[in-house]
Amino acid sequence: MDDDALYVARCQSGETDAFGVLYDAYFDKIYRFVYYKTFSAEVAEDITSDVFHKALQKIQSFDAEKGTFSAWVYRIARNSVIDYYRTKQTVVPIEDVFDVAVDDRTVESLDAHATLTKVTEYLKTLNAKQREIITLRIWEERSYKEIAEIVGGSEDSVKMAFSRGIRELRERCGPLSPLMLFVACGLASSVLPFFDIS
Amino acid sequence: MKPTLEQLLTDIYALDASLREQDAEVRSLVQNLLTEKPVVAADAAFRARLRAELLAERTVVAPKIKQPALPWWLYYAAPIGFATVLILMLVPEYTKTQAPFVPTAVPTTIEQSAPEADEALFMDVPVESPAAKRGAAVSTESEQSTFGVAADMAQSDLLYVGTQEPGQVVLVESALLTAPAYVVIQEIGQSEAVLGMSDIMLLGEQLPFAVTLQTSLLSGSMYEAVLYQDDGDGLRATTSDVVVFAMSFSVSVR
After folding, report:
1. Does B13 touch chain A (CB under 8 A)?
2. What tens digit of pLDDT does each residue of A148-194 get?
3. Domain boundaries, chain B
4. Strand pairing partners for B172?
């Protein structure tokens, strides 16, 4: 039994303090995961709060034999984001909230804005599932097995989607692609402030 | 464990070896993705506030009560068992309602409140009859039975004697016994004389049988057929045996 399962078991037997340990271990990860999908600190806070409240309420239903606590709490987060956009009645497919998030985002700083622009330009070229898998693998450092548990599907299908996503990114963002030129200019402008013509 | 650039590339090439041919581009792409990962940090105050909120919800988390695991076949056996019990409960009720009509004795109280002579054939055990006098032992079900609830008597002792012709024989058309018993034919009236009695019969439904009398039945008179349950001594003793059923019958010339 891993540490998570141990603390979940203690929590299920009535030791609410054990949930504090799980919270400390997963707060940053869940917050980031939600933030990457919403690009708004305010919304990310609301959804993160919702995720942990749900996790605490449903902790009794968690079954360690069916998967890890990590995958379970990420799934709650994923569903909460979908619910958030469903209540906003967006016209885009609920699974594909990335574009809406970019348009609606509240940017905290100019630096963050620049970084987000570059990142989102990269990732916008992918479909929603590929984008989610790549961010979970590269940014969130989740294993393929965990990603499969979070997004649904087999480990092999996750690996396949990841590989295709990388291939598509390489094809669209090759050395001479307009996107790469755009990214390169962005990087240069941040290094050389005197290029700022404003 | 945090995957390094090299680990990620190894992963990617293992999944799609053809990408290795564009190693420089893929390496640059993955490197960019890694370095441009947005730096996201939640507000510390929010983090602490949420933690306190969650830990305050102690009452929400109740100890998990683990249900004992049942064998898989029990999930199938339970409905079958339930259905069987239901059938066993309903079938006797159905057969009772389908049972043929069997006239039975009518309680004394009804006799008193319904004095019509036409019904006298089926009204029996008069207040002052010998059976009533020995009534402490008379079947309660018999006493309380009516025509409408004859079916309820199916599980108790029954006797049916139709209208008889004058003579020294009484034909008992049916008898249902729950224990060894015998039939006594006697006059209704002051004498209450015993005119004859059958042999002791074993329990169960009896075929029609005749009881031979010492004295002839007279037309226009009323008589009584009384079913006595043997007390186990094998002797027909009306003083010690128990009356379980009684019905009156008339005699007429056909």
Report:
1. no
2. 988 888 888 998 888 888 888 887 765 545 455 455 444 444 444 43
3. 5-59, 108-250
4. B161, B209
